[in-house]
Amino acid sequence: MIPTPHLEAKHGDIAETVLMPGDPLRAKFIAENYLKNATCYNQVRGMLGYTGEYNGVRVSVQGSGMGMPSMGIYSYELFNFYGVKNIIRVGTAGTICESVNVKDIVIAMGACTDSNYANQFNLDGTFAPIADFDLLEKASFCAKQASLKFSVGNIVTSDKFYNDDTESLLRWRNLGVLAVEMEAAALYTNAARAGKNALCILTISDSVITGEATTSEERQTAFMDMVKVALETATK
Question: Distance (Å, rounded) from C-alpha 138 to C-alpha 7?
Answer without folding.
Answer: 29
